[in-house]
Amino acid sequence: MTKISNAEMERIAREEVPAVGQYGVRFDEIGDGTARAVLPYQEDFLRPGGTVSGPVMMGLADVVVYACVLSRIGIVKLAVTTSLNANFLRRPKPADLIAEGRLLKCGKRLAYGEVTLFSAGEEDDPVCHVTATYSIPPEEQR
Asked: What are the residue boundaries of the Thioesterase domain, all occurrences included (predicted)?
């Protein structure tokens, strides 16, 4: 059973992760340890050469892993990223970004997940693969 709704996660993204939330990230689905989000395309995302910038993709992936973690442990705002690794697989087209994430492990102190990003309309050909670790604070610090 998921411990956070799509609407709650969108609010958290806007208020607590404004670098991504301000761009209108939309969560389509949050399950137990999974999340799917869409980041509507904006021309501000482009870097020279007409490609969506890496920081935009990494920010989206990070907030999707955060949603995966919160879906499992509930709203714990002090859960934070401790590492994030992005592998850019191909140049994304100027389109909405779709991110599908899942937890691979969620313990008492650490959670580890992955996110695959796609350009809208090309969900069979990923543009980026991200892995991330989150630190979960002990119960008494939540």
From this structure: 49-122
Measuring CA to CA, how many Å separate 103 from each of 28, 32, 50, 123?
17, 9, 32, 20
For residues 125 and 1, what is the distance between their CA atoms, to the nearest angstrom?
30
Model confidence over 28-76: pLDDT tens digits? Answer: 999 999 999 999 999 999 988 888 999 999 999 999 999 999 999 999 9
Whether 103 contacts 69, CB under 8 Å: yes
SS3 readout for the chain: CCCCCHHHHHHHHHHHCHHHHCCCCEEEEEECCEEEEEECCCHHHEECCCEECHHHHHHHHHHHHHHHHHHHHCCCCCCEEEEEEEEECCCCCCCCEEEEEEEEEECCCEEEEEEEEEECCCCCCCCEEEEEEEECCCHHHC
What's the chain's length in residues?
A: 142
pTM above 0.85, yes or no: yes
117: closest CA among 55, 70, 73?
55
